[in-house]
Amino acid sequence: MYVVGATVYAAVSGGLAISTDGGTTFTFRTAADGLACNNGDRVFVAGSVVYVSDTNCGLSISTDGGVTFTTRTTADGLNSYSVYDVFAVGSTVYVGTKGGLSISTDGGVTFTTRTAASGLGNGWVQGVYVVDSTVYAATTSGLRISTDGGTTFRLTGPGGLGVYVVGSTVCVAGENSGVGISTDGGTTFTQYKIASGLGSDYVRQVFVVGSTVYAATTNGLAISD
Length: 225
Hints:
The protein has strands spanning about 1-5, 5-10, 15-20, 25-30, 40-45, 50-55, 60, 70, 85-90, 90-95, 100-105, 110-115, 125-130, 135-140, 140-145, 155, 160-165, 170-175, 180, 190, 205-210, 210-215, 220-225. By secondary structure, it is mainly beta.
């Protein structure tokens, strides 16, 4: 899900749901509107450009606020049709796939991919977050951080399904390992699990607003005090 003002974008089973009234009512976009498939996984929005990842069919991109879409696949340089997450900064688009981290510098027209050879472990990138030239990639074999724009990576923390960064605080949504939180930029982590109040140790995604951490678990939404 992604929220900009009163506009809510939600990747759901069946397509992409868009609300312009704060989530009261929604319209739906599907394959008929150009989405790769009707099973969106995550969504990222930058201005009028909407990116929707699909774990089976690639990356869908809209340049008109989510009215129509075009799809990028392995034919455009993506390493896999299995796309788990997407993050964009200007015309640079970072896409986490089953085969690595695909990076586009032309707005998502063409891609090159970083793999295990670049330090991404097994290359299965399920979450990505970017701050300036620092790229955080949540992989199944650990959190990988690049300080050169995604050229090379080093292992720094626990593996996971998603990552969110605010200043020096790095939060990782863990697959059966809860939420890992670092307050030193990803050097060291503390794990928080069911005993800390999480509904489940399986955390699909994590989001931070100020000092409040929101964790989407398989047993409900957990919110830190």
